[in-house]
């Protein structure tokens, strides 16, 4: 079982590299641990995840607005938020080989101990290791200010709380959605993109009246919403679960904290946190900046510091889990050689798939077929991301598109020239249907979006 799961990860890593989803960062220089580059297909999948998040939060709701704050923030931000003091992981060092691990990662520790065959490993006492990544800002060498690249995107929202209420028409309860990069000097990056040192987060900070009942209501609401969002985008519900944080495991700011976990090949792993942050952030920024962060409720004439319910998800982790979840190997009924009897198919939700459709002229050397196929391709491209392929036989082209999750393949054959229709083949059912060219855009849009 474990081997199968290791195999699955290897297959996914290899598919990602081979087909241009994800490359190791700085590869030609031997790589830079904990960094990854998203290739031509990876950037599409990642953008589609972010777009789906943004649409569901900012476009479809009238109680959430968007924000895009700077990655570099005044260093006092991180003192106020508690990160300078408490954003730490327990670090231990192997006394034999000096490799450093996280003291709370029991599986990694066990594997490491097993690697020293016959020699009993001993470890240094855990010491707190701060995860903030430092940078230097300014032009004069010795006057440069030490800053931190943001360790979470959250604080960019809270420092703008006043700006948002003063410049818009938002009223509590309301939320602010944000997507952006965060940086952590992780002790043990690994499991492909799961734990990286540079990654992206998509978050909602939702401000509510500081009352137990009210905040509990919203906490429960957002927990369910987040879970449903992944299920609606096709993730297998059986592989998702909620997990409540133990009190000693909660972040320094959290009154209540739950994760949504995915059953990955390397175990159940968190990819979203839902946190009740109380008024931690606003009260801390108020204290450290001296700026009044209170909210005035004009209906009840009350002034208060709102409480915050946050949902914080990793874009890269979500993408990795969407890929793992979508990966299927099936018997291939067609005898195309490339498939050796099986087809690999990424059953990504059509909204997430990099290409929405691929257009094939049946034969590459028949000018009329290629001309019509090109015309259809050009028309479709105005509406969605589409591939064009005229290499090899149709079976090979299906194989190639299945592997990257393209939900529809459109073949232009001789009948198309006479009847103005095309064959549309569905990735998952492999069924084919004739569709009139004039109806093609609508047909695809209905099935995809
Ligand atoms: P972990 O315990 O796995 O280190 P965390 O509890 O520190 O994660 P949060 O601070 O709650 O994570 O961050 C919210 C989300 O950001 C996580 O659920 C995850 O999806 C993402 N995330 C956090 N750290 C990383 C990382 N190093 N690489 C990729 N994604 C990350």
Mean pLDDT value? 95
Q: How much helicity do the residues have?
A: 25-40%
Query: What is the assigned CATH homologous superfamily of the largest domain?
Result: Bira Bifunctional Protein, Domain 2
Helix/strand-derived class?
alpha+beta
Task: State the end-to-end distance.
Answer: 37 Å
Tell me what portion of residues adopts beta-strand conformation: 25-35%
User: Which molecules other than protein and nucleic acid are bound?
Assistant: adenosine-5'-triphosphate
In CATH, what is the class of the largest domain?
Alpha Beta
Question: According to CATH, what is the topology of the largest domain?
Answer: BirA Bifunctional Protein, domain 2
Q: Architecture of the largest domain, CATH level 2?
A: 2-Layer Sandwich
Please give the radius of gyration in angstroms: 25 Å
Number of domains: 2
Tell me the number of helical segments per DSSP (H or I, 4 or more residues long).
14
Largest sheet geometry:
7 strands, mixed
Taken from the alpha-carbon principal axes, the silhouette is globular
Describe the structure.
The structure is a single chain. By secondary structure, this protein is an alpha+beta fold. The chain folds into two domains: 2-72 and 152-323, Bira Bifunctional Protein, Domain 2 (BirA Bifunctional Protein, domain 2), CATH 3.30.930.10; 332-448, Anticodon-binding domain (Rossmann fold, 3-Layer(aba) Sandwich), CATH 3.40.50.800. The chain is built from 14 helices and 23 strands. It has helices spanning 2-18, 40-59, 76-80, 83-86, 106-115, 154-158, 161-167, 212-232, 280-289, 315-326, 367-381, 394-404, 414-419, 440-448, and strands spanning 22-24, 36-38, 64-67, 88-93, 100-102, 127-130, 133-137, 145-149, 174-183, 198-208, 240-244, 256-264, 267-278, 295-297, 302-304, 307-314, 327-331, 342-346, 357-361, 386-388, 408-412, 421-426, 432-436. The strands form seven sheets. It has a seven-stranded mixed beta sheet. The two termini are 37 Å apart. The model has no long low-confidence stretch (mean pLDDT 95). The chain binds adenosine-5'-triphosphate (ATP). Adenosine-5'-triphosphate (ATP) binds at residues 152, 184, 186, 195-196, 199, 201, 270-273, 312-314, 316-317.
């Amino acid at each position: 079982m474990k081997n199968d799961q290791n195999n699955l990860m290897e297959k996914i890593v290899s598919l990602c590299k081979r087909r241009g989803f994800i490359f190791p960062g700085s590869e030609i220089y031997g790589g830079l641990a904990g960094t990854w580059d998203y290739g031509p297909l990876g950037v599409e999948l990642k953008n589609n995840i972010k777009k789906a998040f943004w649409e569901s939060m900012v476009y479809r709701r009238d109680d959430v607005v968007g924000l895009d704050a700077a990655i570099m923030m005044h260093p006092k931000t991180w003192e106020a938020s508690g990160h300078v003091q408490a954003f730490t992981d327990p670090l231990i060092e192997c006394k034999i080989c000096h490799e450093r691990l996280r003291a709370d990662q029991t599986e990694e520790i066990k594997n490491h101990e097993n690697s020293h065959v016959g020699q009993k490993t001993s470890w240094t006492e855990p010491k707190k290791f701060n995860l903030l990544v430092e940078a230097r800002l300014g032009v004069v060498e010795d006057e440069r200010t030490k800053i931190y690249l943001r360790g979470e995107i959250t604080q960019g929202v809270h420092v703008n709380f006043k700006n948002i209420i003063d410049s818009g028409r938002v009223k509590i309860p309301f939320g602010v959605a944000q997507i952006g990069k965060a940086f952590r000097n992780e002790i043990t990056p690994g499991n492909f993109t799961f734990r990286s040192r540079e990654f992206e987060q998509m978050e909602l900070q939702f401000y509510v009246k500081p009352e137990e009942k009210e905040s509990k209501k919203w906490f429960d609401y957002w927990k369910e919403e987040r879970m449903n969002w992944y299920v609606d985008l096709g993730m297998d519900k059986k592989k998702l679960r909620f997990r409540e944080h133990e009190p000693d495991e909660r972040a320094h700011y959290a009154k209540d904290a739950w994760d949504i976990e995915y059953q990955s090949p390397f175990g159940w792993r968190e990819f979203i946190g839902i946190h009740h942050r109380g008024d931690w952030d606003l009260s801390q920024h108020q204290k450290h900046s001296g700026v009044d962060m209170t909210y005035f409720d004009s209906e009840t004439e009350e002034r208060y510091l709102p409480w915050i319910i946050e949902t914080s998800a990793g874009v890269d982790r979500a993408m990795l889990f969407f890929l793992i979840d979508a990966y299927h190997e099936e018997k291939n009924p067609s005898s195309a050689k490339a498939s050796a009897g099986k087809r690999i198919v990424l059953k990504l939700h059509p909204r997430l798939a990099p290409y929405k459709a691929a257009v094939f002229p049946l034969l590459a050397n028949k000018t009329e077929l290629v001309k019509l196929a090109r015309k259809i391709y050009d028309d479709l491209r105005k509406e969605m991301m589409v591939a064009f392929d005229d290499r090899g036989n149709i079976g090979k082209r299906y194989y190639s598109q299945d592997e990257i999750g393209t939900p529809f393949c459109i073949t232009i054959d001789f009948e198309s020239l006479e009847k103005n229709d095309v064959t549309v083949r569905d990735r998952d059912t492999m069924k084919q249907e004739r569709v009139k060219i004039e109806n093609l855009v609508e047909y695809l849009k209905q099935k995809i979006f």
